[in-house]
Amino acid sequence: MPNLVNVTEEIVYGLVRFLLHGPEYQTFCHCESCELEITAHALNKMPSYYVTTNTARDEAFKRLKTPENIQQINRQIILSIYAVGKECNHNS
Ligand SMILES: [Zn+2]
After folding, report:
1. Is residue 25 situated within a structural domain?
2. How far does the centroid of ligand 1 lie from the alpha carbon of residue 89, in Å?
């Protein structure tokens, strides 16, 4: 079944959840709306990568998940965590 998927989005969302639940960002809000807000903020700063088949998705994952690329994405996510965290008022 063909399906429209942004591989960048899948990678970024996974990394956002991973980073937010790691020890370094314990003080930031972990609520679902912050998770999504951080993901959206980071995604708006980077190119999307759309595919329509599972084969293309696997290939895109391989191509995008290089250590250098992940490092660059993580850097943007950290900026986004700080940018969104400043505005969050979910954790009273
Ligand atoms: Zn929140």
Report:
1. yes
2. 6
